[in-house]
Amino acid sequence: MIDLHTHTNCSDGTDSPAQLVNKAINEGFSLIALTDHDTTSGWEPAKVALRANLSLALGAEISCLTTDGISVHMLGLLFDGAHTEMQIMLENTRDGRIPRALKIIELLNAGGFKISMDDVESVKPEGATLGRPHIADALVKNGVVSSRDEAFAELLHNNSPYYVSHLAPTPEDAISMIRKAGGVAVIAHPFASLRGNVLSVADFMPLKKAGLNGIEVNHRDHNNDERIALAKIADELDLVITGASDYHGTGKLNSLGENLTSQAQWERLESEADQRRVITA
Length: 281
What we know:
InterPro entries: PHP_dom, PHP_domain, Pol/His_phosphatase_N, Pol/histidinol_Pase-like
Oligomer: single chain
Distance between the termini: 17 Å
Number of domains: 2
GO molecular function: 5'-3' DNA exonuclease activity; 5'-3' RNA exonuclease activity
Structural class: alpha/beta
Number of strands: 8
């Protein structure tokens, strides 16, 4: 089994990298990709925990914004973690999350929902990439909502009056950097309309020209029609088709391995990196 999209408490998941690795081993996975938001800080502890027959594809989920303000997430896999320009881009994206969070908190307070940055920091694991899920957890802690899912459904979704966009690379720039660092780029849940505005079919050709390698077709936030449409785009543009869980531990309902990538599609995707970087025990 191959799952190419997972998160740990180095961003907005709840499992540590070691816990994620152990879970994947215990459930019989052959390979998982570690793709925390805008950070590679979980790579080393995940490698230390690796054992048995599990392989790791290390990466990151990069927060992007199109020129017309649509939020896009780009999975970068198998890139060189020591690539200086890539790490600078990730750091700049992380830094942009702080003023964004402060503005969201300000808007929530103005709307009558009491929360502070201290509340958010109190529920965020030390060193984790700051994100809306941590604001959601603070809202739960303060009794404003009962769960992270409720926080997103009611207050933190992309069309909410409390939503704030952030400074981020364009999808094309992120793809270019991933490829420059030797990795492969897969666009994550691109038709997840419940999250807000999404790309159109016409938007995929420029991404292909920028070096996009694949599309995450099979994801819980895509309905059947959206999966069929994305598979057609992937076929027409000769892109790899992936499936993944977007696992966040107890932070989301997503179960590890609820969507998978086929061995053949993975082998093609891996072959498009500039060198083999899969980690084995």
